[in-house]
Design brief:
Shape: elongated
Number of domains: 2
Number of strands: 11
Strand content: 25-35%
Helix content: 10-25%
Distance between the termini: 80 Å
CATH class of the largest domain: Mainly Beta
Oligomer: single chain
CATH architecture of the largest domain: Sandwich
Structural class: alpha+beta
Radius of gyration: 31 Å
Length: about 220
């Protein structure tokens, strides 16, 4: 084919395609509406227990003159128990309107969690930072910590280091199987402004032979 034949064929196909689209619009072919997507912020407790929340969205719609405008819509959304961050809630028929009697599209809501004062969420597991005193980390201890199901007793093994993770099986997000809760130890020093604290640490510096950098070698 020479160039003139090529362009005639190309634009001829485009013309026929545009004419076909106009025919479909005017000929009554039903077209499904577009799916819409949005993000919603929920509390961690909504996932732990399930909830129904009212949300207001600004969605694009066509007005009578064919222009795109933003309009507010308020919907009641059921949040399933155990839903995770990044998962989507599908609201059937709440998307864009169909054409020529076609069905509307769906609305997909992607879930994100608001920051929680206690827990950090990773997939279906929860992480809780647990402050401990130096003697609790060294000698071991039993302390009370919060969980979504209420306070429990956590056993801190002797010689626990800063950052150690203690696993509480099944205390995370509801699932099959449920997620876990990880207690992350954070060794907190008492304030050096207290004379007794300074006295005890000075005694340890004199009497305890300990070099935290001994593994570096010489």
């Amino acid at each position: 084919m020479d160039f003139s034949d090529f362009f005639e064929s190309l634009f001829g196909r485009m013309h026929r395609g545009a004419a076909g689209a106009r025919q479909r619009r005017s000929g009554g072919f039903a077209l499904r509406g577009e799916d819409h997507h949005a993000k919603i912020l929920i509390d961690l407790e909504d996932s732990l227990h399930g909830a129904t929340r009212s949300i207001t969205l600004r969605v694009p719609e066509l007005d009578e003159s064919g222009h795109v405008v933003l309009r507010e819509r308020t919907l009641n959304v059921r949040i399933p128990k155990g839903i995770r961050q990044g998962q989507k809630i599908r609201l059937t028929g709440q998307g864009g309107p169909g054409m020529n009697g076609g069905p509307p599209g769906d609305l997909y809501l992607e879930v994100e969690f608001r920051p929680h004062p206690l827990y950090r969420v990773e997939d279906k597991d929860l992480y809780l930072t647990v402050p401990v005193a130096p003697w609790e980390a060294v000698l071991g201890a039993k302390i009370q910590i919060p969980t979504p199901e209420g306070p429990v007793t956590l056993t801190i093994p002797p010689d626990s280091q800063h950052g150690r993770k203690l696993r509480l099986r099944g205390k995370g997000l509801p699932s099959d199987p449920p997620g876990d809760l990880y207690a992350v130890l954070e060794v907190v020093l008492p304030p050096s402004s207290d004379p007794k604290v300074r006295e005890h640490f000075a005694a340890m510096a004199r009497e305890v032979r300990f070099d935290p950098r001994a593994h570096w070698g010489r």
